[in-house]
């Protein structure tokens, strides 16, 4: 069984500053991580940063945090960053190329890796960090959805400490004993909360005309564009169901979902004795990030505490499956051949991008996802190693691109 958090003793109060690498430092989670780290210069040192396209933001972060290494996979962008940094007298080394992210994630100097890249693109670096036994702070849920059992096995074999950053999974994790060995037999099931996103309560037919700008306008959280669209379709919750199945080693049926529009209760553990443990807080990602960085201790996150006197009630309701047909795909994919969750994830990444590009309509995201999973035979979905999974991801993207063309032409 894989290890989401081992014995607390292994991570007793650090005797020196923890060296942190942030993969995807220019994104929403990356920036929040740097904010938490900046509050604790005595505890953390930024060792490495990475970005995909945003050269100027990455350069600014390097000038402020002076990491040893910065990664820009694209060679030309890396050259621009090197030039800009040299002009300002920075000593940060800029790496580029396909291997650079894995190199950073597994560098011997690195203690903790914040995996904050969006999508399956982050999987190889997560695996490298896991194999190298790092403290792995996982925001990049797609990596676990694609990697599944292989990901968890690599964590266990590498002796890594996997700490969930997704707020729901951090909530579950915070409700459980620090020592994973004590989890066994306590959990009856878990309940992931979902806000319902910007379209909760609408008529399903009304979603045909929604624009990308409407879809990314989340009522409670400010996040990257991809996860914001996923929240609007509730594919985010589907990915989180799969993520929870692996993180907490649960039967898929023991991962349940309830709508909670206020996003105050971040998720719940229903114990064998019917006692329910919940974690509450303001919707602010700095809280789970701070917990991941400091576990098993707690440090200031910068988030405001809950103001109970001004809470206007906590409500819960069932998911409207007509409005959110994608959610059920999570359990269906978990019940199908291994690798099916990787296919579902790839389809969704392609579909969301096509929607953001204006190629397909919002409800087409669901049909592209369902059609891709249907069309890729289970034989092809049998995956064993990282290369198999990456190949499956490529095939699923090609299949999904066809589904996008079909949807756009309809
Ligand atoms: P974002 O789009 O704001 O940032 C993504 C980061 O990844 C950027 O730094 C970008 O440069 C980098 N990146 C993008 N594509 C890449 C590629 N192909 N190769 C290398 N780097 C690449 O996204 P975000 O909202 O910060 O989300 C990051 C991850 O965290 C996602 O998996 C998301 O589901 C998860 N997450 C986010 C939140 C949130 O509040 N934003 C909450 C829970 C989980
Ligand atoms: Mg979440």
* Ligand names: nicotinamide-adenine-dinucleotide, magnesium ion
Mean pLDDT value: 94
For the sheet with most strands, the description reads: 7 strands, parallel
Helix count from the secondary structure assignment: 15
CATH class of the largest domain: Mainly Alpha
Radius of gyration: 21 Å
Question: β content, as a range?
Answer: 5-15%
CATH H-level name of the largest domain... which superfamily? RNA polymerase sigma factor, region 2, helix turn helix motif
General description of the model:
The chain is α/β, with parallel strands linked by helices and 410 residues long. It has helices at 28-38, 55-65, 75-87, 100-106, 123-131, 141-158, 167-175, 212-215, 225-233, 235-247, 286-294, 329-335, 340-356, 364-375, 386-409; strands at residues 18-23, 44-50, 69-71, 93-95, 112-115, 135-138, 161-164, 187-194, 255-259, 265-271, 276-280. The strands form two sheets. A seven-stranded parallel beta sheet has the order 4-3-2-1-5-6-7, with helices on both faces. A hairpin with a 4-residue loop joins strand 10 and strand 11 (276-280). The termini are far apart. Mean pLDDT is 94; it is low at 1-11. The structure holds nicotinamide-adenine-dinucleotide and magnesium ion (MG). The site of nicotinamide-adenine-dinucleotide (NAD) has 27 residues, from helix 1, helix 6 and helix 9.
């Amino acid at each position: 069984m894989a290890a989401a958090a081992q014995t607390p003793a292994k991570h007793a109060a650090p005797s020196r500053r923890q060296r942190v690498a942030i993969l995807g430092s220019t994104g929403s989670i990356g920036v929040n991580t740097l904010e938490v780290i900046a509050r604790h210069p005595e505890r953390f040192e930024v060792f490495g940063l990475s970005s995909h396209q945003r050269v100027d933001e990455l350069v600014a972060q390097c000038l402020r945090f002076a990491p040893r290494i910065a990664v820009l996979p694209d060679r030309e962008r890396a050259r621009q960053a090197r030039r800009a940094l040299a002009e300002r007298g920075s000593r940060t080394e800029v790496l580029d190329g396909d291997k650079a992210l894995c190199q950073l994630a597994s560098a011997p100097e690195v203690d903790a890796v914040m995996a904050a890249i969006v999508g399956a693109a982050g999987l190889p670096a997560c695996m490298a960090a896991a194999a190298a036994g790092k403290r792995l702070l996982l925001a990049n849920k797609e990596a676990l959805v694609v990697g599944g059992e292989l990901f968890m096995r690599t964590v266990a074999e590498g002796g890594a400490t996997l700490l969930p950053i997704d707020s729901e999974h951090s909530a579950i994790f915070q409700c459980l004993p620090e020592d994973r060995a004590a989890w066994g037999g306590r959990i009856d099931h878990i309940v992931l909360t979902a806000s319902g996103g910007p379209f909760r309560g609408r008529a399903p037919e009304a979603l045909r005309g929604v624009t990308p700008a409407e879809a990314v306008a989340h009522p409670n959280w400010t996040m990257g564009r991809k996860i914001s669209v996923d929240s609007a379709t509730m594919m985010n919750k589907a990915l989180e169901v799969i993520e929870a199945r692996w993180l907490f080693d649960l039967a898929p049926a023991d991962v349940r979902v309830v709508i909670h529009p206020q996003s105050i209760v971040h998720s719940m553990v229903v114990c064998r004795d019917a006692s329910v443990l919940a974690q509450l807080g303001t919707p602010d990602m700095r809280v789970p990030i701070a917990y991941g960085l400091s576990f098993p201790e707690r440090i200031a996150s910068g988030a405001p505490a809950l103001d109970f006197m001004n809470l206007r009630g906590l409500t819960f309701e069932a998911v409207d499956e007509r409005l959110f047909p994608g959610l059920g795909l999570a359990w269906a994919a978990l019940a199908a051949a291994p690798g099916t969750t990787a296919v579902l994830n790839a389809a969704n990444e392609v579909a969301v991008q096509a929607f953001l590009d204006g190629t397909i309509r919002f409800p087409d995201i669901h049909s592209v996802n369902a059609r891709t999973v249907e069309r890729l035979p289970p034989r092809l979905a049998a995956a064993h190693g990282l290369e198999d999974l990456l190949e499956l991801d490529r095939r699923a993207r090609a299949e999904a691109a066809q589904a996008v063309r079909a949807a756009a032409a309809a």
